[in-house]
Automatic annotation (TrEMBL):
Pfam families hit by this protein: GST_N_2
Domain GST N-terminal intervals: 4-84
Protein name (database record): Glutathione S-transferase
Species the sequence originates in: Acidihalobacter aeolianus
Keywords of this entry: Transferase
Amino acid sequence: MSELKLVIGNKNYSSWSLRPWLLLRRHGLRFEEIRVPLYTPEYAERVAGLSPSGKVPVLHHGPLAVWDSLAICEYVSEQLLDGRGWPADPEARAVARSVSAEMHAGFQAVRTYLPMNLRGRFRWRSPGPEIEAEVARITGLWTDCRARFGGLGPWLFGGFTIADAMYVPVALRFSVYNTPLEGVAAEYVHTCLADEHVREWCEGAYRETEELPQFEARELWEPMPGGYSG
């Protein structure tokens, strides 16, 4: 049994669970995956014995529990990857930490109006200026990072970093909701969708059977045929 255990929620809905899971998978770290479906009668009882915060994700490394997606990624980088979770260049590393923290703390409109739902596919209909501004900010960040630091690979800072782990769920949301994108932003979404580990997660989401109405957002969005094509 692996010394590392990662407790996650539903793959279809839990964007925060995807972030550390993806970092671990991208770096080939072996871990036991413990899935606790969200908002079920058994959730609180099951997660109480696994997570100090009562939320997912949480990483167990031997006797140590680390919760919160960004904290888990930082811990994995420091303790298991010799710092390779972040760019090696100090300037790039500082920017990567900044954009990751901005994702971690902000973009509430994207979270509210574009709920994670990988099995869905919806026709874009802008919910208003707040989300338009957040989409513009996110795509501007992607474009700036790629222009300044992305010359050695297809990710935000060339190679895959924690910053990508933070933004892959956003790219998946933009794909699901058919958010109009062009240029660097559209290319970055393609990079995310083409990644084998992202596809593995999405295929897991497709195999799930739980449906959470609060994340379906049918009252806001017009469903389209199909969905993630894995």
